[in-house]
Amino acid sequence: MKPATLLHALVLSSALTFSHAAEEEGFKPMFNGKDLSGWVNANCAPETWSIKDGVVSCTGIPTGAMRTEKQYENFILECEWRHLTSAGNSGVFVWGSPISAPGVPFLRGIEVQVLDHGYMAKADPKKPRWFTTHGDVFPIHGATMEPHGEHNGQRSFPSEERSKPSPEWNHYRVEGRNGTLTLAVNGKVVSGGDKCFWRKGYLALESEGAPVEFRNVRIKELPSTGATAADSAPLDQGWKHLYNGLDLRGWHLPTAVESKWKPSNWNLKLESTGGQPGQALWNEAQIGDGEFIADFQLPKGADLSKPCTGFYVRGGDKPAVLIGAGSAPIVFGADKVKAGKWYRVRITLAGTKATATLTEPQDANPQVIEGTLENTAKGAVGIADLGSPVTFANFFIR
């Protein structure tokens, strides 16, 4: 090689090395190696997430998420993950909401799929491809994105098959810049999307049915590109989740009705009682002025000409919000609720004024009804048993 050519090559190599080193500077660990400081258990049981010797462990039960305390806009996130069983399912949520979206256990946001190869057995070879196990990226539950490369709907498929099966470790590098998201699997960018909405929000790890581990989770924040409030997920307002997805810890359950209330993963099911009302299920959390959220789904064929379910606040002797027909400060009847669909009711209390907002999943036009309460003293929240089977989920209070 000529001296001039050699000199040019050395200069170029030095420049690339310096550029790479500069890019890698500024990373910070997202876990301290000892506990889960800096993270919020969004809607799982206390034992779902743990950390030991720097490895973050998830049991996979119930389905839900653990998210960051702070929001992120532009960043580079790196992590290693592995499933401990074949066909394991998990994910990394990007630019997510502070609590689960209505009618589901997942945060609204962009999901970076963490899926083991064994899951492919569930695919129907006769149908068009709708998922892979090598790093799909896609928006969920109200989020939107323009996918890169081959895709199905808004789901970006990876350009190469690079992930390793359980129990091997995989490396992900997720970059979010001004609403563009890219995923590198084991060293090469394979999938992503543009015009992500939101483009600022919480980061989260997902629990979805199988044990999974994460390690060497680190992040480098990049300069802001001016994400507005409209571009961003809502900020956490201090919500506390009340149902852990495993059992009824924190709820007062009369012995006589134990068999009627069934924890079922992220759902809590009230079984049919032949039309006979029963005792309410009360949570130990209390509220004076504040808010209470609950999701519910009536079974198909439910008779909304009768009272179907309801929600107590402040330890009252009758529901503050009633679903179906009947008498209560606030009633959502058959003209507002359809059997078989999920709804979220958000009850806001300020003195004697109660405001209930009823929202369908991904619906931008919630229904709002105001009512008047007699009791203003702080008291417990509860769920009515009005004799009808109901499935509940996502209880939060603040």
List keywords for this structure.
Jelly Rolls; single chain; eight-stranded antiparallel sheet; 31 strands; nine-stranded antiparallel sheet; mainly beta; globular; 398 residues
Describe the structure.
The protein has 398 residues and is mostly beta strands. It has two domains: 24-236, Sandwich (Jelly Rolls), CATH 2.60.120; 251-397, Exo-inulinase, domain 1 (Jelly Rolls, Sandwich). Helices cover 6% and strands 45% of the residues. The protein has one helix and 31 strands. The protein has one helix spanning 3-24, and strands at 28-29, 39-41, 49-52, 55-58, 64-72, 75-83, 89-96, 109-115, 137-140, 144-147, 151-152, 155-156, 170-177, 180-185, 188-197, 201-207, 212-221, 240-241, 251-252, 261-264, 267-270, 278-287, 290-297, 307-312, 321-324, 330-332, 342-350, 353-359, 367-372, 379-385, 390-397. The strands form five sheets. Strands 1, 3, 4, 6, 10, 13, 14, 15 and 17 form a nine-stranded antiparallel β-sheet that branches. A hairpin with a 2-residue loop joins strand 20 (261-264) and strand 21. The longest helix has 22 residues, at 3-24. The protein is globular.
